[in-house]
Design a protein that fits this description.
- This protein is an alpha/beta fold.
- It has two domains: 9-140, Hexapeptide repeat proteins (UDP N-Acetylglucosamine Acyltransferase, domain 1, 3 Solenoid), CATH 2.160.10.10; 199-250, Udp N-acetylglucosamine O-acyltransferase, C-terminal domain (Udp N-acetylglucosamine O-acyltransferase, Domain 2), CATH 1.20.1180.10.
- Helices cover 17% and strands 27% of the residues.
- It contains four helices and 27 strands.
Length: 258
């Protein structure tokens, strides 16, 4: 039996690995590439200049690679790139990029995406990320590796969410969230570090203690941001895991939550 349902519509120019499964009534567009082992459920639309890697599973009613929800978009051949081993649950929407940014929405590998998630144009999502139900990412949002965004988290355009961050359900992000932080609220506020997540990822007790010290420097010391950043740079000399916090602050275009 063919792994591609007879009711599926697959453009003859689309490039699908031989073992890609396509469910009933799904539509695969002309400029789509899909890697080996990927499963496309029924009633999925994959369109645009979209490249999907290996061993992904995309559930029913998803819209993948549609044009941006951006009035400035004028039909440019921008792209969506999805890595390997991702699970994308029901009714998610991923858009291609825009010419006003790098022109590509990137979604890494080994990510777990729950139902009703929106990933807008030009988002840059890392690896091993969890996006819980109804997470909504506006255009140009960056999410670092191992971040976990709780259900109904919303991120304003151009916000950056650092690696190993975890947000509570219903959080609204208007500013950048540095790595390692637990944050929640409307607007989102810092509430310590994601120590449990760091333990699960193999951080040592010494490394976690260094991250806690860095958090206190940034949020409890009453230092200015400039002075706190300098102190973190000194700490990074002894504890390299702190360097990503320093680099994040240097590139926080919207300012960090504080």
């Amino acid at each position: 039996m063919s792994a591609r349902h007879p009711t599926a519509i697959i453009h003859p120019a689309a490039k699908l690995a031989d073992d890609v499964e396509v469910g009933a009534y799904s539509i695969i567009g002309e400029h789509v590439e899909i890697g080996a082992g990927t499963v496309i459920a029924p009633h999925v639309v994959v369109t645009g200049h979209t490249r999907i890697g290996k061993n992904n599973r995309i559930f029913q009613f998803c819209s993948i690679g549609e044009i941006p929800q951006d009035k400035k978009y004028a039909g440019e051949p921008t792209r969506l790139e999805i890595g390997d081993n991702n699970t994308i649950r029901e009714s998610c929407t991923f858009n291609v990029g825009t010419a006003q940014d790098v022109g590509v929405t990137r979604f890494g590998s080994n990510n777990w995406v729950m139902a009703y998630v929106h990933v807008a144009h030009d988002c840059q999502i890392g690896d091993n990320v969890i996006l819980a139900n109804s997470t909504q990412l506006a255009g140009h949002v960056h999410v670092g590796d191992y971040a976990i965004l709780g259900a109904f988290t919303g991120a304003h355009q151009y916000c950056k969410i650092g690696a190993h961050v975890i947000t509570g359900g219903g959080s609204i992000v208007f500013k950048d969230i540095p790595p390692y932080i637990t944050a929640s609220g409307y607007p989102v506020e810092p509430h310590g570090i994601n120590s449990e997540g760091l333990k699960r990822r193999g951080f040592s007790s010494e490394q976690i203690a260094a991250v806690k010290r860095a958090y206190k420097t940034l949020y409890r010391s009453e230092l200015t941001l400039e002075a706190a950043r300098a102190a973190l740079q000194e700490q990074a000399a002894q504890h390299p895991e702190i360097q990503i916090m320093v680099d994040f602050i240097d590139h926080a275009d919207r300012g960090i939550i504080r």
